[in-house]
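My main concern about presentation is that the manuscript never shows what a single data entry looks like. In essence, backbone conformation is discretised, so a fold becomes a row of integers matching the chain in length. An entry of this sort, consisting of the sequence and the corresponding backbone structure tokens, reads as follows:
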Amino acid sequence: MAFFASTILAVVWYKFMPVWVTPLMVIRAVDQIGEGHTPSMHHSWVPLKDMSPEMPLAVMASEDQLFLKHHGFDFEAIQTAVKRNKAAGKKKYGASTISQQTAKNVFLWPGRSWLRKGLEMYFTVLIEFVWGKERIMEVYLNSIEMGEGIYGVKAVAREHFDKSPEELTRRDCALIAATLPNPLRYSSKSPSDYMLKRQRKITREMKHVKWK
């Protein structure tokens, strides 16, 4: 009962309050200290209304085109990922929705254990019910890792584009979204040819995605 009460209170709290720090931010900072580096963390909260309206479209086009239609889980994508994983061997394909990624980012730790996956499903159901889509998108875009020591749209806009989050163009947003599968490997500041190719693809997909 204490566990359920505390998790529900936490979800209700974050429905109204900014998420200033996440478990991943702390883990990354500890890793940096362990490697002998000074911790680097760039993160500032910004309301969704003060972001470029292209940003939700870009992440939906890249990560979860059915975001507004599902209730936290894209079961068709999960079935496809299972089939691809059986055929792929060591390479693993995911099917996490924006809601699932937000639940993991805010409340949990990285990993592939059954315990963490079960908790992710639990928190996904909670935030879908308590927060709603607009708040989930707002928290996602403020907490997602977008580069080394960079979390959220405001930080990546400032550090990689020297802009405010509302000044980001359609192409900027598509390039940021292109890095999200692995923002420590792919950079929106110094994009490779592969990233530019993904940017063009996401820009095209954005034409078919509607936000709200």
